[in-house]
Design brief:
The protein has 717 residues and is of the alpha+beta class. 13% of the residues lie in helices and 30% in strands. The protein is built from 10 helices and 40 strands. The longest helix is centred in the N-terminal third of the chain and has 24 residues, at 34-57. The chain binds zinc ion.
Length: 717
């Protein structure tokens, strides 16, 4: 059986592109275009087809506009019933039919995301944009005064072998020079590329390289070029076959790569799918070729609410999108075309119709909707209720209730469509450091008790509903657990870093965890902020939520140091509300640690009973590096130091104002100024430095054991 092939011809030179935005453009048609001639020969057949459709429709406009229409939904089984009255029972314009689509990408062997081998996201977006056209989605930038077609396209979720799929089939054509050079032939006369389909003994045509069962999937082929057309040169952008081809190897849409990827900017894909659901061009039959010369007359698609007209790109000019000139083919046309549009006998009746040519096309009419729905039900019924779309598989509804002690809780869910089982995952550690912690837990229950979840973390609880064919539908819920009891993080295990939040103001640099400055090598796990030479930091590092409880979580401690005593970072330390919207109090301004880690400890008791976070705020410019490590929450009175300056000696505070304390066993401590002058020598654990001028000093502590001796820069404030 020979199927009518319909082509979309669009001019898309760079110049034409710029004109398109002004509503202009032109239609380049080769007068020797054999296809157009062939199309004319097929016109009679085409008209018979349309007539038969319209005869079988036999539906008045009033009927499908009324609200009294009984909504009926049919499965493919219904169509086999003898009692089923096709023409009287079938029309259901409120049904959203879902068409399983497979997109074959015939690429040039490059990595995914390069060249013709477009990335999955491009395909997903193109199908979304196709649906935007077909649904006349109000949120869309191309939303027009058309109707929704009640038909939705969806990338297949189950492939021909019953396995999960993205609905994308990548075909490496890098060894096929004919394809690489000339793409797909669209007529017998063009021989340089590969055939759309031929039935000879060899595997050498497009359909043989890639085709999924056309009864189950609508096949879309994304190709480099069709008979040497391109988006730049113009010519054929795509072609499709009417719905009568359903189930045959020749069914499907073939579209060139650039037109497919720009499925919002170009209506090519939406237009081709219109053909696939039996819509002719609105100007159908307008072109005659007389003695090799193109002559445009008035065309008609046989649909009563699309005006007769001449294609809007005839004679190398385009009717402007906003034109309200009289349409001389149908000046008295006044049909109701959509909920918001009635014909006026002007170009506006037709210039925006998706089955017209031109750059303004965004709309379908009631009549076109009716015809596509009939094409669906006449020819494409095998798509209805197809499992390939995955729409019979739904995600579970998930909820979580914390237990009273806030150490765990109950994760529960409702299933739909009877999955075989559910699998539960718990990921903890926020967005960046997600890792699997609890192990997979497959259950036939509809809830699980999580005995314990780490405090101070953001947890993602994921529930998979497992359907047959290994198809999974996933829902997830995010739970933030507060610090409600003793807590310590040395930031050594990235997978367990708590719910720390970085708010990056100022320059692009900000708080980071465990990244070396120069080489990318890791350093000891710690938060650090790195200098910026051009813009002042305005960066917060914000701790997990702490529920302050007397004697339990009313204190924090941490270690901090500077990389350089010459370029010293200083940090303001705040108490911040749990939603990090307001500063509740200041723990210390200008916290400026020395070069060796120094422990800091703060009392939170005034926030008793509240949920707070700790904020480290950097506002420096062009200093060096600040480190924060070993963050601890606990009882303020018994909070111990997590890490001392070395194993034997602790010197604090640094910077010092008056009294310097030295903990540990030592023989003597000497303090020098930067010129080497000995300022003081003492064996006491308390040294009064009140009289020292503000400066930097060197402290040497002699223990008697060389390995334990230490030298430290001391800042006198
Ligand atoms: Zn077309």
């Amino acid at each position: 059986m020979k199927y009518l092939i319909i082509f979309l011809l669009l001019p898309l030179t760079a110049i034409a592109q710029s004109l398109l935005s002004g509503g202009c453009g032109n239609d380049i048609i080769n007068p020797e275009n054999n296809l157009q001639i062939a199309l004319l020969k097929d016109l009679k057949k085409n008209n018979v087809f349309i007539k038969s459709i319209n005869t079988s429709n036999n539906i008045e406009a009033e009927k499908y506009l009324s609200n009294n229409n009984e909504i009926k939904q049919y499965s493919s089984l219904d169509f086999n019933s003898e009692k089923f009255d096709f023409y009287n029972d079938i029309l259901d314009l409120n049904q959203n039919y879902v068409i399983p689509v497979v997109v074959h990408i015939l690429h040039d062997g490059g990595n995914i995301g390069t060249g013709l081998n477009i990335k999955e996201q491009n395909v997903v977006e193109s199908i979304e944009n196709l649906n935007t056209y077909w649904n006349n989605s109000e949120s869309s930038p191309i939303h027009g005064e058309g109707v929704s077609m009640n038909i939705k396209f969806k990338l297949a979720e189950i492939d021909e072998n019953g396995q999960p799929t993205s609905g994308i089939n990548r075909v490496d054509m890098s060894s096929n020079q004919a394809y690489l050079d000339h793409g797909i032939n669209y007529s017998a006369e063009s021989v340089d590329g590969i055939d759309d389909y031929n039935s000879d003994a060899e595997i050498n045509s497009m359909r043989e390289f890639a085709s999924w069962n056309p009864e189950k999937y609508y096949n879309i082929y994304v190709v480099n070029t069709i008979s040497d057309s391109s988006c730049n040169r113009g010519g054929i952008q795509g072609y499709a076959r009417y719905s009568g081809a359903h189930g045959s190897i020749s069914d499907g849409t073939v579209i060139i790569n650039c037109a497919f990827v720009d499925a919002l900017g170009k209506s090519t894909l939406a237009h081709e799918l219109g053909h696939a659901f039996s819509l002719p061009h609105t100007f159908n039959g307008d072109l005659r070729v007389e003695d090799g010369i193109q002559v445009y007359g008035c065309g008609d698609d046989g649909i009563d609410d699309t005006a007769k007209h001449k294609r809007s790109t005839a004679n190398a000019t385009q009717v402007p999108c906003n034109s309200t000139e009289i349409n001389f083919c149908d000046p008295t046309f006044d049909k109701i075309m959509s909920p918001t549009k009635t014909g006026t006998g002007t170009d506006q009746d037709i210039v925006r119709n998706t089955m017209n040519y031109g750059s303004c096309t965004t709309e379908f009419t009631f009549g076109q909707q009716r015809l596509t729905n009939h094409a669906m039900l006449l020819n494409r019924t095998s798509y209805i209720n197809s499992d390939a779309t995955g729409i019979n598989f739904q995600r579970p509804d998930v909820s979580f209730i914390e237990n009273e002690s806030k150490t765990g809780g109950i994760l529960s869910w409702s299933n739909y469509n009877n999955p075989i089982s559910n699998t539960i995952y718990l990921f903890s550690g926020g967005d960046t450091y997600n890792s699997f912690i609890n192990g997979a837990n497959t259950t036939n229950e509809t809830s699980v008790n999580l005995d314990y979840i780490d405090q101070g973390m953001r947890h993602t609880l994921m529930v998979n509903a497992n359907y047959e064919n290994d198809l999974k539908k996933t829902s997830e819920i995010t739970v933030t657990s507060k610090i409600v009891r003793e807590y310590f993080d040395d930031f050594e295990d990235n997978s367990k870093v708590g719910d720390w939040i970085v708010l990056n103001g100022g320059d692009s640099g900000s708080w980071r965890l465990r990244t070396n400055l120069a080489s990318g090598d890791t350093i000891e796990g710690a938060w650090h902020i790195l200098y910026d030479a051009t813009t002042t930091h305005d960066d917060y590092l914000i701790s997990p939520i702490i529920e302050v409880k007397n004697g339990l979580t009313d204190g924090i401690s941490f270690n901090a140091k500077n990389e350089s005593m010459t370029y010293m970072e200083d940090i303001d330390l705040y108490v911040i509300d749990e939603n990090y919207e307001n500063i509740l109090g200041t723990l210390q301004e200008n916290l400026t640690p020395p070069e060796e880690y120094l422990n800091y400890k703060f009392d939170l008791s005034e926030y008793e009973g509240r949920n707070i976070r700790i904020g480290f705020h950097s506002t420096t410019l062009d200093q060096y590096i600040f480190y924060m490590d070993d963050f601890k929450v606990g009882n303020y009175n018994t909070l111990s130091l997590n890490k001392i300056i070395n194993d034997e000696i602790i010197i604090y505070p640094n910077p010092v104002n008056s009294i310097l304390k030295i903990d540990g066993t030592f023989k003597t401590a000497k303090i020098y100024d930067l010129k080497g002058k000995l300022m003081i020598e003492s064996s006491e654990s308390i040294i009064d430095v009140t009289q020292f001028p503000q400066s930097i000093y060197i402290v040497k502590v002699i223990t008697g054991e060389e390995s334990a001796d230490m030298t430290l820069k001391l800042i006198k404030e």
